[in-house]
């Protein structure tokens, strides 16, 4: 039985703990938050046996085996390295780190310690992604991919009033790319691997945060475009265009519908097929990443490599996008 702790008591941790009711093989041992009153209330709400206000104290606790990190992106590397050094397995919320270098360091330490380090990004563990992968074979030669993940942020109104919350602070390694575009980049990396070339452009807010971003990635015989935004709603429809058919994915972070429309000029008739996806509701789909994490711990980490290779690939693409767009984080300095 894995004794789990969480760091951060925000809405995403709430989603994970709600989804954890569908998981097995773990107990919630502790929660951690800087504010003692919040930490105590959060522990009581979710039935944790204890609470901490210090990551150092949590790392030193012998009764915790694994920790889920759901704090701002700029803290992920520091917290993870401290916990891994103390012998704790780590599940870290997306984006796993501020850059590829940081995540390599996390994985190197995890390997030295014989621990599991994993990025918690819901689509990578959702079984619907495998159905999408299998469906690619029906599209013929794939020529164009358009992956969209964007939404008008609930915190943008405050930003426009001069109230700058964490989600709109670039020094915290936040922004449209790291917060939302990360889903689209991870799907691209998972399905198609690393691109040969990246061309990116961005619209920034006055404080330098990326608000709208587009990146076109070149593959042999194929172009893939990633679009993301924090200041405008989108229909969140993605397309994978092949010579024999078109796949349309609704909500690439948590697919609720996937349709293949076959090329009528080739088949001579209109024909579509709905993929039999689970369409697991947003939030509940976090059960897949948590159960995979628990299972990987039980397997001694065997099988984690494929997930971590995708994360490294995606972070490498995002590093290049940021380089081209002049988006530099404090964490980028050695």
Task: Give the helix/strand layout.
Blueprint: E1 2-7, H1 11-19, E2 26-32, H2 36-46, E3 50-52, H3 55-60, E4 66-69, H4 76-85, E5 89-93, H5 100-113, E6 117-120, H6 122-125, H7 127-135, E7 142-150, H8 156-160, H9 176-192, E8 197-204, E9 210-219, E10 222-229, E11 237-242, E12 245-250, E13 257-262, H10 264-267, E14 272-274, H11 286-298, H12 304-325
Parallel strand pairs: 1-2, 1-4, 2-3, 4-5, 5-6, 7-10
Antiparallel strand pairs: 7-11, 8-9, 9-10, 11-12, 12-13, 13-14
Strand content: 25-35%
Q: Name the helix and strand elements from N-terminus to C-terminus, one letter apiece.
A: EHEHEHEHEHEHHEHHEEEEEEHEHH
Would you tell me the structural class of the helices and strands?
alpha/beta
**Helicity level:** 25-40%
Q: How many DSSP-defined strands?
A: 14
Q: What is the topology, as strand order, of the major beta sheet?
A: 8-9-10-7-11-12-13-14
- Rounded to the nearest angstrom, the radius of gyration is 20 Å
